[in-house]
Structure formats: structure tokens, C-alpha cells
């Protein structure tokens, strides 16, 4: 049935005698026309979605034959989301309106970090925590910053992650490092902001993989 026919029929019901019939008819008319309005307007449009890439064409050193598994990164609630962080002032957090990541940031970061190890020729010595591998080491990470800062000189992508390598048998931290990278963003639009964050995260991935690979 078309929207015009629905409106006409429902309006007809609203004209019947009796308070109850009239009230029901008017309510149905409002619902019918409201639904037609949604169909005509097309409803809410999908938010543009962006992904991170993993760096390729680089080599990582091989220190030994150990197996390392990459655990899921930890992050505060403001980063544990698909939304893209913007810092307009120090200590102030907001998000881009028309952009989002393809997954929660910690899950996306973990996937691209593992891929970076694989691209650095460490595919046979790195896996994902929880996959049942008999690992020698676990790489733990904490996302400290991953967003666009718009103060102090314009938009810039900032990525900072704290990393620890823990021995599986001893449970002790055998190495630790903080990695930070920045990349200028042309604007705070979704494409420009995510391109800058992708560039900064690529730098972190390469440095992290090379650092970790020299220790297992």
C-alpha cells in the first residue's frame, strides 16, 4: 500500500463518530505519515568508516627462535571505542562527527601490529594471545594516546603506546619501552585525520617491531 493510500484510509478512520475511534485514527495517521517521512528522507546515513594499515617492505632483526604472542592492548574508555578522538585543548576530549574506525581501536591496533610483525618477516615467530600457542614471551601494550590534537600549531596526529615484553615462564618483564609518533593532519575531516593517524601509527609499528624482534 502506498503512503498516500495509507494516509487516506487512516484519515477516514479518524472521521468515524466516537471519541475513541477518532483518537485511534489520528494516532494511526501520525504514525503512518511519520513512517512515510522516514522513507522519503532516506533515514540516517551511515557514518564513513576508516581503517588502519600495517607497514610493509621493511625488515626486522632476528635474535633467536622464540615465539611471541601479542596480547590485546589496554586503553582508557575514551580510546576503547570505534570513535576517533580529537583533543581541542589539553585534557579535553571530543570525537569526530562523521568518521569512525572499522573496529574498536584496541582490537584494530592489535590486528595491525600482528600484521606488521608478519610483514617484517617474523610471521613464524609471532601469534595472537589466546590462540593456544606455546609462547615464550607475551607482548603487552597500553594505548596512551591515539587521536588528533588541534591546539599548539594546528591539527596533528599523536600516537603513543607503552609496551612490555613478559617472559612466559618467569612472568617477569624482560623489556619495556614507550613509542611516540606525530604526523601533521591537513584538516580534521575524516579522510585527513585518519590518514595522519595511519602515518603516525605506521611509524610506531615499524619501531616497535624492530625493537621487540631484537629481544626474542
Automatic annotation (TrEMBL):
Gene3D superfamilies: ABC-type transport auxiliary lipoprotein component. This is ABC-type transport auxiliary lipoprotein family protein. It comes from the Bacteria. Pfam families: ABC_trans_aux. Residues 52-207 form the ABC-type transport auxiliary lipoprotein component domain. It comes from Ancylobacter polymorphus. SUPFAM superfamilies: XCC0632-like (SSF159594). The lineage of its organism: Bacteria, Pseudomonadati, Pseudomonadota, Alphaproteobacteria, Hyphomicrobiales. Keywords: Lipoprotein.
Amino acid at each position: 500500500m502506498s503512503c498516500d493510500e495509507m494516509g487516506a484510509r487512516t484519515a477516514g478512520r479518524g472521521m468515524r463518530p466516537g471519541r475513541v475511534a477518532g483518537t485511534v485514527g489520528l494516532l494511526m495517521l501520525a504514525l503512518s505519515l511519520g513512517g512515510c517521512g522516514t522513507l522519503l528522507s532516506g533515514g540516517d546515513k551511515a557514518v564513513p568508516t576508516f581503517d588502519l594499515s600495517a607497514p610493509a617492505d621493511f625488515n626486522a632483526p632476528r635474535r633467536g627462535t622464540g615465539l611471541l604472542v601479542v596480547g590485546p592492548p589496554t586503553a582508557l574508555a575514551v580510546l576503547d571505542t570505534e570513535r576517533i578522538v580529537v583533543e581541542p585543548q589539553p585534557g579535553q576530549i571530543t570525537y569526530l562527527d562523521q568518521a569512525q574506525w572499522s573496529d574498536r581501536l584496541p582490537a584494530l591496533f592489535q590486528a595491525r601490529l600482528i600484521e606488521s610483525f608478519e610483514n617484517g618477516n617474523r610471521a613464524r615467530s609471532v601469534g595472537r594471545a589466546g590462540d593456544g600457542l606455546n609462547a615464550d614471551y607475551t607482548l603487552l601494550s597500553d594505548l596512551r594516546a591515539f587521536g588528533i590534537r588541534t591546539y599548539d600549531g594546528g591539527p596533528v596526529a599523536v600516537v603513543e603506546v607503552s609496551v612490555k615484553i613478559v617472559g612466559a615462564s618467569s612472568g617477569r618483564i624482560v623489556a619495556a619501552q614507550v613509542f611516540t609518533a606525530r604526523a601533521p593532519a591537513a584538516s580534521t575531516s575524516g579522510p585527513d585525520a585518519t590518514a595522519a593517524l595511519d602515518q603516525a601509527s605506521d611509524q610506531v609499528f615499524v619501531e616497535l617491531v624492530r625493537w621487540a624482534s631484537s629481544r626474542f
